[in-house]
Amino acid sequence: MPSEPDAFPDALRAALSDTGALGATVLQLASRLDDSPVRVEAALDTLRRDGEVLRMGRGLWMLRDFERLETRDDFVDPAEFVERFRREEGIGLARYNGPITFRSNESTPVHRWWPYVQGYSAEFVEGMIARRGLPPGASVLDPFAGSGTTLVEARRSGLRAVGFELLPPAVLAARVKTRFELGPDDLGRAGEAVVRATDRTTPGVLPFLRETRRQFDGATLDELRRLRNVLPPEGSPVADAVRVAFGRILIPSSRLHRSPCLGYGRRRDPGGPTPVERFRAAILEMQSDLEGAAATRDRWGPPALVEARDARHEGAPPGSIDLAITSPPYVNGMDYVMNYKIDLAWLGYARSYADLRALRGAEVACDNLPRSETAAYRALRDLPDPWLREILGRLRDNIARKRNYRRDDMHAVVHRYFADLRRVLVRVHRALKPDGRLVLVVGDSLLAGVYVPGDLLLARIGRRAGFSIEAIEVARTRRSGQRRSFGLRESVVTLRRTRAGSAPRGTRR
Ligand SMILES: C[S@@+](CC[C@H](N)C(=O)[O-])C[C@H]1O[C@@H](n2cnc3c(N)ncnc32)[C@H](O)[C@@H]1O
Hints:
The chain has 509 residues and is of the alpha/beta class. The chain has 18 helices and 14 strands. Helix 7 packs across helix 11. The longest helix is centred in the last third of the chain and has 22 residues. S-adenosylmethionine binds next to loops.
């Protein structure tokens, strides 16, 4: 029933008060008030002129009272957590100076072969390796290897590199990038053979993704299908490298972009390079980088081991690793499967939406997980850290108050996230030699109006798994996707293996 005219602003205020700092869109408010979006929009406009409400990003409206989260009784802000951490753990935040994001890798030989927005910089890994002063042949592990930044730098520094990763195109990229001995001429010949065969073949079947025809223009799609039709099967170093070159041109040839999430963006310049031209350029760049790498051959470590493994359930042999450097997915961060679905589909790693779902279920929890994957985590039991009880409880209550938040089991997603990461920390602890270090690059988050200090929580969970917390260094600040004005950070957490650890309660689930 539509509300009475004069009661409407009050009803609207009440609805906005319910949604709190999370905000709500016009359509959400209209559905909650059982009224028309036009009327809601007009009333919001009046309230805005009176200074009562404000419009945040993404079409969300909220009461001005919620503008400053810090003034809400139930809001625990970043500074408060940092202070608590200092009191309880005896450690304050320090600063890490130097480039940390993948951006600089985009122009760095070898690293640029497969741009991975979620990766970190080669300089960062180089610096962390140098800090430890490891002898040649020492072992470096990355349980979330991504595109292989750690592994490339470890091998380049004369170390033995071991990496696990679940996303198949990332596994492929990490393998290819660490095979420094690949001959540039062999690669050039294989690339040319693909180009020649493309002229003679017909377009192969379309990948299963429903939006494929929307993602590419007709001529581009046709050429990509022919290119894909003649790619050599995965398995040999040359074939794998050719496939990476193909994977790399997919997004630049499409109407999509990653910034960092996959979405439709600017139209592709119709006069831009064709897929075959892009493919040729990618092969040429790889050849040139391989020639450059060959000059340092006498310093390379042994061939890297890159395994398609779930880091939650499989680890390196006990006591085999000197240093682990990694960056896990962030709390509620990227849905890697969604973001790399084009690569997954075109390279044949996923043949259906069910394949995508299965892969997502195995990755560390993100907020697109099916509900079946979070059911066991709804109860606030077996939490890997006492701070989580307070944070998850607040998250659950905030979402219950809002009622129309995207998913009402968000606290279970976050619970599963930390349970997943605890398993990995326990495995890395076991794999490290005594006194070995685990260096984690991780961010904090603002979820449904609740601040989650991911870096501090992981450090504390690590301590319970048998590490001592050596340092938390803030590498950069970021903006919250939920509230642009809210500053988040990205930290380098260094943990030291001090004692033999045993799996804490709950890791066997
Ligand atoms: C932040 S990225 C790592 C990026 C990497 N440091 C780089 O520079 O390319 C995190 C990675 O963890 C992987 N991942 C998520 N869950 C995993 C699991 N259970 N086992 C292994 N890898 C996983 C994701 O596929 C993603 O590539």
